[in-house]
Design brief:
This protein is α+β, with helices and mostly antiparallel strands. The protein is built from 16 helices and 23 strands. The protein is globular, with a radius of gyration of 22 Å. The relative contact order is 0.14.
Amino acid sequence: MISKTTDVLVIGGGPAGSTVSTILARQGIKTTVLERDVFPRYHIGESLLASLMPMLDAIGASEKMKRHGFVEKPGGYFNWGNEKWSFRFDEIEGAPKHSYQVKRSEFDKLLLDHAAENGAAVHQNVKVSSIHFENGRAVSASYLDRTSETKGDIAFKYLVDCSGRSGVIANEYAKDRHFHNVFKNVATWSYWTGTNLNYDALPAGSTRIISVEAGWIWFIPLNDGTVSVGTVITRDQLRKEREAGRDAEQVYDQLLADNDEARIILKDAKRTDIKMETDYSYTSERFTGPGYFMCGDAACFLDPLLSSGVHLAMVSGLVAGASLASILKGKVDEARAVNFFETSYRQAYLRFLMMVSSFYDLNRGQAGYFWEAQRLTSKDYTDQDMKKAFVSIVSGGADYSEFRDGQYGEIVAKKVAEKIRQGVDMRRNAGQFGDETKRENMQFMDALNGLQFLQANAAIDGLYVVTQPDVMLAQTAA
């Protein structure tokens, strides 16, 4: 039975929902998860960043993931714009040696089961049909239990929307989701057997990213012996191909057949049917509101180039859990905790937005991407260590370390905000955003307006996240 009341209602049991609900339930906070699907369920987003490892530690799920036998991912490889380079996560001192390449159906179920084992009331095949507000504040939800075909209502103190792309709050109530028209891309992928990923010296388990004239290709090895192989091209390019008489499957096959490395890897391989997603890059104007937090894809999602999806989901889930636990235990007032969550999550999102968008300028080259990374981290790296700035971002380490830094506060947060602002201004002055008065660019600039929030609200209260003995917010020493 679904309770009529709960302290925190979590909509969605993916990585964001599982993370926040585990954190709260482990601290005795009554937490209810309503998940519309029945796990395991298929999901794309299989290549995980190294930031995953300490977050799994924080929620007590590391050993379960280790025992499951996912492919260990030590880093990645780029063949991008006629330059080739690889990286390892452990190039950053103290960083995890690996993350995982996962089948999301298995990974997500492990996380959701873990939340239930830690005391969260998890209900699957339950669809939230509406949210109810009193004086502008979210206070309850109506739902349909599709297993029993019964309807019900549940009251809560706080709501955490982890409903993914469906975005219950953003799409149905706030109505403030904006798609990034500069990322109007189409991803097409399939799963291959009989591949040859051992033709070079790249460490086993690495993600391979290869740019092509029309877009880029990914290769992700999975624990069942298959390899996820995807192509990303612009929607306009796909339209031109279709006008020339080629369907999406033919375009996918031809992109792989035309690439030297792909031909080597797939020479004797066979694939399954293709899958496709389009128009998947977007953001909401705010990630919080009266009585609610938005985590993971419910708030924002970026182009999959740097595999930031699960990272942003779990980062936001972790910070939301710390913020809510602190509010409900009377340790931090609501306004301060909400400000910290919004600031931390928006900073992580904007950092990846700037990094991903820089990659679509192929002329910048490896040195240019490393330099861009330097502009997006709070730490100042030397010219010789610029690659470490890049690794710190693409591993997720920059985000995780900064909101856990006891010195986070005003100085660090505003330093990052200023670096992001400088990067925005430089691209604007160089004409890289095009004509901002045109509708296709206005939405992208609207997303970057979140920078103004950072500059005005950058964690001035000096809060940061601690994970021991519980995941909470702490205050820096005066």
